[in-house]
Amino acid sequence: MQSFSVMEGDSVTLHTGVTELHKGELTWHFVADNSLIALINRAYQAFSTMDGPDGRFRDRLKLDNNTGSLTIINIRSEHAGVYEAQIFSDNTSSKRFKVTVYARLPVPVLIFNSSQCSSSSQYNCSVLCSVVNVSAVSLSWYKGNSVLSSISVSDLSISLSLPLEVKYQDNNTYSCVINNTISNQTTHLDINTHCQPCSGSAFWTVFITTAVVGSLLTVAAVWMIRIYNNQRKTDHEGKH
Q: How many Å apart are CA 118 and CA 224, to the nearest integer?
């Protein structure tokens, strides 16, 4: 059995392996419900595709009238399964194909901790990488090319989240990656852009800076007053 893995919205062609079907009959069945979905009959010059009992193949199938190969276009999850081609000619033969359909992956979203400052949060940046409505995927944090942490889900459609804590001064490259068998999506963490120091640190920086400036202004004012008083004293003594 030949296997194919495709993304939703893509197309896949199932090749019969026949160069040209000169005579006889060829049928395609969707094995899950044993429904006939395509037919070639050379004797009657019949070439047709069917929608299937529930209509899932409507406007989805293209049949090569020469080779009998079948193309499924704009594929969806309901088209996943096993397909069988049967050729009835001088020799009867059959061929099966397994098609696995994967949903298109969302781009991971980074959520940053907006809680109030604490002694630790002034030095560390807490990030949560999240994706929603996913199945058969892995979600991972990378530091450069090395995996720091990872979580996986099988066939259930759920939401996944994976935390990460880094220091503000960290110069390493971090990225959150979601992947399945055939594709991946990546969101990079820019610490300088995404991780701002805790507002408490900023407050203390402003407070200290203001205090220093205020002290300097006070010293300058006292110094100027002292010079002024000394000058007045000198002028007064000169008059006497």
A: 43
pLDDT digits (tens, 9 = 90+) for 62-110: 999 999 999 999 999 999 999 999 998 878 889 999 999 998 999 999 9
Domain that holds residue 76: 2-102
Give the model's confidence band at 3: pLDDT under 50 very low, under 70 low, under 90 confident, else very high: very high
**Same domain? 83 vs 11:** yes
The DSSP secondary-structure symbol of 114 reads -
**Greatest pairwise CA separation for the chain in angstroms:** 139
Query: Is 201 a domain residue?
Result: no
The total number of structural domains in the chain stands at 2
Q: Which long-range contacts (CB under 8 A, 24 or more apart) does 122-125 make?
A: 122/197, 122/198, 122/200, 122/201, 123/167, 123/168, 124/165, 124/166, 124/167, 124/168, 125/165, 125/166, 125/167, 125/168, 125/191, 125/194, 125/195
What are the structure tokens assigned to 147, written together?
């995996």
DSSP assignment of 128-169: EEEEEEE-SEEEEEEETTEEEEEEEE-SS-EEEEEEEEEETT
- What pTM was estimated for this model as a whole? 0.68
Q: Domain for residue 183, yes or no?
A: yes
207: pLDDT strictly greater than 50:
no
Higher pLDDT, 190 or 83: 83
